[in-house]
Write a structure and sequence with these properties.
Layout: E1 4-6, H1 8-16, E2 22-25, H2 29-33, E3 41-42, H3 52-55, E4 62-66, H4 72-82, E5 87-91
Parallel strand pairs: 1-5, 2-3, 2-4, 4-5
Length: 103
């Protein structure tokens, strides 16, 4: 069971084809408000298990996770997969490697 790690370019291609059912920013709320990916919701890493029921409807869709450096998103992705989520993606290198506009 492995989380799919994808590059910023691959994220952009999937955005263009509207292939993500859910995008989760795992950073804290302050960082989220300073800029995030389009349509991303904010669920900080330390809240993911408390809020897992909130995202259950998306468990069969493509879910993109990202954090600042790409480490937490892989860890959270594994947690989601253990909890029945099927197609989980992590932004490789996190926002540090994302050279596209934030919202």
């Amino acid at each position: 069971m492995a989380v799919n790690t994808i590059s910023a370019n691959q994220v952009q291609q999937m955005f263009a084809r509207n292939q993500f059912s859910l995008i989760i920013d795992l950073r804290d709320y302050y960082d989220y408000t300073r800029g995030h990916l389009p349509n991303a919701i904010n669920i900080p890493t330390n809240q993911i298990l408390d809020r897992i029921n909130e995202i259950q409807p998306y468990r069969n869709g493509n879910i993109l996770l990202y954090c600042q450096y790409g480490v937490q998103s892989v860890s959270v992705g594994k947690v989601l997969m253990i909890n029945g989520f099927r197609r989980v993606y992590s932004l490789n290198g996190g926002l540090d490697y994302y050279n596209y506009p934030l919202y």
